[in-house]
Amino acid sequence: MEAVYTQTRIKDRFIQNHTGFWYEHRWIIPVFITAVFCDALSTIIFMNHLGIEAELHPVYYLVSKVLGPNIGPLIGAAGKIGAALVVGIYCRKFAPYLFLAITIISLWAAWYNVWGINIYVPLLVEWIP
Q1: In whole angstroms, how far apart are CA 85 and each of 50, 105, 113, 129?
Q2: Rounded to whole angstroms, how far apart are CA atoms 64 and 4?
Q3: Domain ranges of the chain
Q4: Residue 116: is it exposed, middle or buried by C-beta count within 10 angstroms (0-12/13-18/19+)?
Q5: 38 Cβ partners below 8 Å, 6+ apart?
Q6: How far is 8 from 28, CA to CA, in rounded Å?
Q7: Radius of gyration (Cα) for the chain, nearest Å?
Q8: Each residue's pLDDT tens digit in the chain (129 positions)?
Q9: Degrees, nearest 5: CA angle 97-124-94
Q10: DSSP at 25
C-alpha cells in the first residue's frame, strides 16, 4: 500500500502529536533553547571581532548580511528553534534525540566561537573553499 500524505493528514498528525508534547519535553526544550541562544550570542561576539565573512553557516551569513552582525544571529537562532520545534512535534518519537543533538552541537559551537577558535581548526573548515 502506498503512503499518501495529503495536507489534511499532515495537519491531523501534527495536531495529534502536539497534544502533551510541551509537558512531555518540558525539561529538554528550555535547555535546547538556551543552547541555541548561547550559540547565537557567541556568534555575535565573533562576528563583531572577525566580521560577517567569517561565518560558515549560509543562512546565518545571509541573514547577518541583511540585518547586521547583532540581529542576524538572533533571527537565525529563532528560526532554528522554530524549525526544530515543528520537526520535533511532527516526529514526536525522535524529538528528544533531535533536541539533544542540537543542544550538543549548539553548545560546542558556542564554545568554539569564543575559545575553540584559538585552539584548533576543525577538518571540515579546511575542506571549505
Answers
A1: 31, 16, 25, 32
A2: 39
A3: 28-114
A4: middle
A5: 106, 107, 110
A6: 29
A7: 17
A8: 566 667 788 888 888 888 899 999 999 999 999 999 999 999 999 899 989 988 888 888 999 999 999 999 999 999 999 999 999 999 999 999 999 999 999 999 999 888 887 787 666 666 666
A9: 10
A10: T
- Each as own residue / partner, the long-range contacts of residues 64-70 (CB below 8 Å, 24 or more positions apart, any chain) are 69/44, 70/44
What is the grid cell recorded at 53? 565573512
Cell readout for 39 is: 550559540
Q: How far apart are CA 102 and CA 119, in angstroms?
A: 23
Contacts of 81-85 with C-beta under 8 Å, sequence gap 24+, read 81/32, 81/33, 81/36, 84/32, 84/36, 85/29
